Amino acid sequence: MEVQTILQRIPQFASAKAIEVKELTGGITNKNYKITTDGDSFVLRMGGNETKHLGIDRKIEYECSRLASQIGIAPEPTFFLEPEGYIVARFISGKGIPAEEIGTEENIKRVLESMKAYHALEKFPGFFSPFRVAEEYARTARSFNVQLPPKTDWYLEKSSEIEKALYTREPLQLRPCHNDLLNGNFIDDGTRIRILDWEYAGMGDIFFDLGNFAIQHEFNDEQDEILLTAYFGQPTVSQRAHQKLMKIMSDLREAMWA
Fold first, then answer.
1. Which residues, 6 or more positions from 198, have their beta carbon under 8 angstroms from its beta carbon?
2. Total structural domains in the chain?
3. Per the CB 3.0–4.6 Å rule, which of 66, 67, 152, 155 could disulfide with 148?
4. Which of 12, 59, 26 is nearest to 196 (CA)?
5. Segment (H or E) for 141
6. Are residues 58 and 166 in the same domain?
7. Cα dist. 205→136, 153, 202, 256 in Å?
């Protein structure tokens, strides 16, 4: 569908005197366009038609983005276009953080400051569990006759064992989580680290965010300790183990996503 046709259905653009459209790079499941009009800049986020198979609910994404924007973490969404579920949000000026730099102590602490802020929100709509997601991705792949790797069922069995080990003694404490802390989802606006792309956000386990952020940036034990100390002050053996197990689950989620 032509972008200009979409813009005519969005009130803030339909009445604009002049519009500049520029496609942005970096989206995996979405197409993103920078829209500049009347001195303001926005991003039009157009999700792919098949992203429903990845468990993405665009209304939940919009609402989580809205809540996180209220504390200055996410871009402010300004319009939700139905039925496609396209999202318009304010453009954030800033720069990305190179993958080789995000693992410094200073940057880890800055990311954790933003992470703790949205973890402290009262509630997100939706629910995210890496255990359920991995199972659902396997079912979806099989429904399309995808040939899965030979040890897939073994990995899913180990996933179930990890889940039991984590939550049998201590029930899961649900908090608002992002769940997709890729390097490309961080923007340094000069004051704080802003976080993009809330399509997998929902209530979940904060340790998945901690593990996902770490494994996406290939943190070593020393960097994990910096991360956990920045978050908890004095991390316990249990907290260290929980984060390491979620690094495994993050990798499994990514493998099943692929």
1. 61, 64, 65, 68, 74, 178
2. 2
3. 152
4. 26
5. helix 130-143
6. no
7. 18, 24, 10, 19
